[in-house]
């Protein structure tokens, strides 16, 4: 076998690996937000403030679109997006909810005590199953749910100014 024939498969593998790495390092911006048209899970979550009470988001607890932000105290991007979540809560009172994902209650309370609590109510998803039912790929993620219980926007990763604008527009209906 000639030397170039032996090198050809290796060169092809390196080329494909390089293209894959480039795609992972520079994904299309719209891959972080998605219009969704699926029903929010009917999962019932205990409230952080009082675990004897519960909340569900299908349908939302109010008769207008709501934002559900899945976050955790151990999540650095959650800390970074917190000012954007707070800004949304200020501009859309009563429409911003939280879901503490795989976090201990005392850690969540410490996180919110330090940064402020922008949420109308906070559900607790200690096992992480509820997040999976939403379609969570990793915290933080934000879902906007219509009054009839459909997920109309799914934002993967931390909010920033552009994504906050998209969420705000979805909350306005």
TrEMBL record:
InterPro entries cross-referenced by the UniProt entry = Redoxin, Thioredoxin-like_sf, Thioredoxin_CS, Thioredoxin_domain, Thioredoxin_ResA/DsbE_sf
Task: Tell me where it resides.
Answer: Cell envelope
Name the predominant localization. other
Annotated PROSITE patterns? THIOREDOXIN_1, THIOREDOXIN_2
Claim: NADP is one of the keywords in the record = no
The highest taxon in the source lineage is Bacteria
Query: Which residues lie in coiled coils?
Result: none
Task: Name the keywords, alphabetized.
Answer: Cytochrome c-type biogenesis, Disulfide bond, Redox-active center
Thioredoxin domain location: 34-173
The record's Pfam families line, in alphabetical order, gives: Redoxin
Q: PANTHER family per the record?
A: THIOL:DISULFIDE INTERCHANGE PROTEIN DSBE (PTHR42852:SF6)
UniProt protein name: Thiol:disulfide interchange protein
Per the UniProt record, the source organism is Henriciella pelagia
């Amino acid at each position: 076998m000639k030397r170039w024939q032996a090198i050809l498969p290796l060169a092809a593998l390196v080329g494909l690996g390089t293209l894959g790495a480039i795609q992972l390092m520079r994904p299309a911006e719209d891959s972080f937000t998605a219009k969704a048209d699926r029903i929010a899970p009917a999962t019932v979550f205990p409230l952080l403030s009082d675990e004897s009470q519960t909340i569900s988001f299908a349908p939302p607890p109010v008769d207008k679109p709501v934002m559900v932000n899945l976050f955790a105290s151990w999540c650095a991007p959650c800390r970074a997006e917190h000012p954007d979540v707070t800004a949304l809560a200020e501009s859309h009172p009563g429409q911003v909810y939280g879901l503490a994902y795989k976090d201990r209650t005392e850690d969540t309370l410490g996180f919110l005590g330090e940064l402020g609590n922008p949420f109308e109510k906070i559900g607790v998803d200690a096992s992480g199953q509820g997040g999976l039912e939403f379609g969570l790929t990793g915290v933080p993620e934000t879902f906007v749910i219509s009054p009839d219980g459909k997920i109309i926007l799914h934002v993967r990763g931390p909010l920033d100014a552009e994504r906050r604008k998209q969420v705000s527009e979805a909350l306005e209906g």
